């Protein structure tokens, strides 16, 4: 606890000094957001399906997803295998909030979407959750080298204060892991709406067994261990989901 508090205080004092040198008010300078330089954002959606309806929901979505993708861009659609039963997770890309509002309005007026999908899918769901996220400035969407395989969504709940406090340490932990060839990093996303100070790293592996082997190897990499040790001083909790891409997912 002493180490965590001292590390947090050192980071805070460093940021404050930088802000004051630039003639800014320190508290205003400390970012609690991703400092997004463009309007593009990604909506994360998680649906929890009634267990007895899981197969029927996936079949219906496979048949009717084209009605939805006619309105906006789908980045990926997955069925969760580990870390959440009877769930699907999907990511939608928007250029602006105005575009998303327009898409939602168009969907509400699309009779085929309502009649052929929504009216049938909604009774199959237990709940729906969504988050608005941005790619962090040092990340981009990097597609896997080939189709197939599995994806891991690793979600990290960081300490309050935003990337100005923990961003550098988090970047080092993720980048060192990716640079060591331990896994393929698809993208890193920072939350804007939903749970704040949350960062999601989307990884790709050839198979669940390859992921297990990669994790074992990373645990023996001194560079990864050192970077993670620094990053976790800002970490409150983390979760992970292993997911299989659906046939209609652009990210396969």
Automatic annotation (TrEMBL):
Gene Ontology CC annotation, any one: mitochondrion
Gene3D superfamilies named among the record's database cross-references: 3.30.70.100
Annotated NIPSNAP domain residues: 42-140, 151-250
GO biological process: mitophagy
Pfam families, alphabetized: NIPSNAP
SUPFAM superfamilies, A to Z: Dimeric alpha+beta barrel
PANTHER family linked: NIPSNAP-RELATED, PROTEIN NIPSNAP HOMOLOG 3B
Similarity annotation: Belongs to the NipSnap family.
Protein name: NIPSNAP domain-containing protein
Gene behind this protein: nipsnap3a
């Amino acid at each position: 606890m002493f180490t965590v508090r001292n590390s947090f205080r050192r980071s805070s004092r460093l940021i404050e000094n930088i802000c004051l040198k630039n003639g800014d008010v320190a508290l205003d300078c400390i970012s609690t957001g991703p400092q997004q330089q463009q309007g593009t954002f990604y909506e994360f959606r998680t649906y929890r399906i009634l267990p007895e309806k899981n197969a029927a929901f996936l079949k219906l979505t496979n048949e009717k997803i084209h009605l939805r993708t006619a309105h906006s861009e789908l980045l990926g659609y997955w069925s969760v295998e580990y870390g959440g039963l009877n769930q699907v997770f999907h990511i939608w890309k928007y250029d602006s909030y105005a575009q998303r509002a327009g898409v939602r309005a168009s969907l509400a007026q699309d009779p085929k979407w309502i009649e052929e999908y929504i009216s049938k899918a909604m009774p199959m769901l237990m709940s729906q959750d969504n988050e608005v996220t941005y790619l962090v400035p040092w990340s981009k969407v990097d597609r896997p080298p080939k189709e197939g395989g599995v994806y891991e969504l690793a979600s990290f709940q960081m300490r309050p204060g935003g990337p100005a406090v923990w961003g550098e340490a988090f970047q080092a932990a993720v980048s060192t892991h990716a640079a060591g060839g331990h896994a393929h990093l698809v993208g890193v996303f920072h939350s804007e709406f939903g749970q704040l100070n949350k960062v999601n790293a989307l990884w790709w592996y050839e198979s669940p067994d390859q992921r297990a082997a990669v994790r074992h190897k990373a645990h023996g990499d001194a560079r990864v261990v050192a970077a993670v040790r620094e990053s976790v001083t800002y970490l409150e909790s983390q979760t992970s989901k292993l997911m299989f891409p659906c046939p209609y997912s652009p990210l396969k």
